[in-house]
Design goal:
single chain, mainly alpha, 65% helix
């Protein structure tokens, strides 16, 4: 089953991503994780935001030029913890409702929740001890 399409423009995605990361950088819980991973240089942040906007455009099949593996990126950073995903998703949801039309915000938040749950689940699975049973739900 594919994703449910909803109307969103490239400009709306760019505005969402830019405002989201401005808020993330100010967040006391996950801001330091992002600042350690990306740094403080404005040009590097613009590059990161452009990459993430490309991810969202790809997810919506607006532009298929995104390349990368979000799961591997998150797994490679040991500062990213499964229990941080609700914080990330909360900031994303509030930002979406602040910058997008309500129906669009609801739709992209639903998609972000599915993506976030998948990443969170992947972190739990790949980082658990090999001899243990599989984790059926993310540990939060």
């Amino acid at each position: 089953m594919g994703i449910q399409k909803f109307p969103i423009t490239e400009e709306q995605i760019d505005a969402l991503v830019t405002e989201f990361y401005a808020r993330v950088r100010r967040d006391p819980d996950i801001g330091p994780v992002f600042l350690r991973a990306i740094g403080t240089d404005g040009e590097i942040w613009r590059h990161h935001e452009a990459k993430i906007a490309s991810f969202w455009r790809n997810s919506m099949e607006i532009d298929r030029s995104f390349s990368g593996n979000p799961m591997l990126k998150h797994l490679a950073n040991n500062d990213i913890l499964p229990e941080q995903f609700p914080i990330w998703l909360g900031i994303f949801e509030q930002t979406a409702h602040d910058v997008l039309p309500e129906a669009t915000a609801q739709s992209i938040v639903a998609l972000a929740n599915r993506i976030g749950e998948s990443l969170q689940f992947g972190l739990v699975q790949f980082r658990k001890p090999q001899e243990g049973p599989p984790a059926l739900k993310p540990a939060v």
